[in-house]
Amino acid sequence: MTLITENQILTYLNMIWPAKILSLLLIAICLSVVPKQSFAADKPLTGREIVERCGVKYGGDDQRSQFEVLLRDQQGNEKRSVYLRLWKDYKGVNNIVDKMLLFTEYPPDAQGAAFMRATYTPDLKKAADQWIYLPVLRKIRRVTIRDQGDSFLNSELTYADITPRAIDEDTHKLLDMREMGGMQFYVVESIPKESRPLYSKRVQWFEKTPNWDDCAKVRIDYYDLKGGLLKEQFIKWQRVDDAWIWDRVLVRNVETLHASVFLITDAKINTGITDDIFTERTLRMGPNAIPKLNKKPDTKD
Questions:
Q1: Residues 77, 81, 86: CA angle, nearest 5 degrees
Q2: In the chain, where do the E strands start and end?
Q3: Distance (Å, rounded) from C-alpha 258 to C-alpha 246?
């Protein structure tokens, strides 16, 4: 298997990542040639305990942000899309996990397009509901997810990747601890329990911090059903009040050498998003249909 090299991604990453974070990412990307270093934990820990403490973060009761997606193929061709993102946590009430709206702001020829998604608790055994509005057709279409492995917004993340997994859906094992750039990480292997999983396993990296409240997932390695490394996801978080929100995320497919970058800016939490905005009327009308939604700054090309 051919892995993407440092030189191939250095220029691209340098445009979107601060130097300190970029340095750590490059170290992590080249970790396959660095011997593992194991460290004794302060006290015995299990993989499940680490995932419980570090893998579930408060994201606010609702969020409003600008959501940017950058797609890059092996030839270096790039595509950029920018959305106004509205999200609400339903905390499992009526078997609803969360709902999300995306309004396209860039590119200009896609303005007016909108996307709505509702996800449900695992016990309901129901796929997410999705709708898309295309202004050219002036129609709302319901989008059926035939496969949870389908791409989300044409990126390297799938619908399954952006859907929260209950901790009991996987068996978690603490593999070891690793140190890079003066930082320590818990490395946890998570093997799905379902009979027909999308991945054979995910290996999750959690930054070890003095306070459990600051411990967070910073990397996920996804392995295909044959046990080979498929893609890597690197996560940088931002804190908005007491909420944890993605800041920048890089996903690299080591087979196709395609990369996706997600950036969230102008994030606000607990803005009072109400249930009645998640409707077909809002999809058609856009943000103007939402009361008290302040106008966002113009998007720069």
A1: 155
A2: 62-72, 78-89, 96-106, 114-120, 129-134, 139-143, 170-180, 183-192, 201-207, 217-223, 229-240, 243-253, 259-269
A3: 21
DSSP state string for 68-89: EEEEE-TT--EEEEEEEEEEEE
Alpha-carbon dihedral sign for residues 4, 200, 183, 235: positive
The token pair that represents 203 in the structure block:
């290996």
Q: State the pLDDT confidence band at 60, using cuts at 50, 70 and 90.
A: very high
Q: For residues 234 and 238, give the distance between their C-alpha atoms in angstroms, rounded to a whole number.
A: 14
Give domain 6-289's CATH architecture: Clam (2.50)
Kindly report, residue by residue over 21-31, the tens digit of the pLDDT.
455 455 554 44
* Distance (Å, whole) CA 256 – CA 2: 9
45 burial level (CB within 10 Å; 0-12, 13-18, 19+): middle
Q: Which of 126, 123, 62 is nearest to 89 (CA)?
A: 62
Which residue(s) pair with 249 in the sheet?
A: 235, 262
Residue of higher predicted confidence among 195 and 29? 195
Q: How far is CA 190 from CA 32, 150, 169, 223, 230, in A?
A: 19, 21, 9, 11, 15
Strands 129-134 and 201-207: unpaired
Cβ neighbourhood burial of 235 (10 Å; 0-12, 13-18, 19+): middle
Contact, 184 vs 279, CB < 8 A?
no
Tokens of 264: 């969230």
* Structure token digits, residue 251: 């996903």
Going from N- to C-terminal start, the domains of the chain cover 6-289
Alpha carbon distance 233, 31 (integer Å): 14
Residue pLDDT, tens place only, 78-118: 999 999 999 999 999 999 999 999 999 999 999 999 999 99
Q: Distance between alpha carbon 62 and the CA centroid of its chain, in Å?
A: 16
